[in-house]
Amino acid sequence: MWPFKTGDLIAKTHIFTKKPLKIGLVVEHNIDTFLIKWVWLDKDFFMEKEGDIFMELNKTFLLGTAQVHRSNMEANLSLLNSKYSYGKKEKNPLPKGVAP
Hints:
Oligomer: single chain
Helix content: 10-25%
Order of helices and strands: EEEHEE
Structural class: mainly beta
Number of domains: 1
Number of helices: 1
Distance between the termini: 35 Å
Strand order of the largest sheet: 4-3-2-1-5
Number of strands: 5
């Protein structure tokens, strides 16, 4: 099950190369699903360089919002950055003697 929460930056990765194909932000989550607003895509992979029609189609369909069920492990997602601390949160993550 995907542990993503609102505010997490995630990527949809290529199944073999693990290269990010799309990057998005989790904008909403609940127990069963989470909602991703895609903000970036790999233009070479999605044929944006082939013409204006592909650029518009990619913006409309690929950079839209997608809902993912937490049990859908075929989604090939990875966490890039989290606003949450998964596990025990430290009070001061800076080394001793370093002021924030």
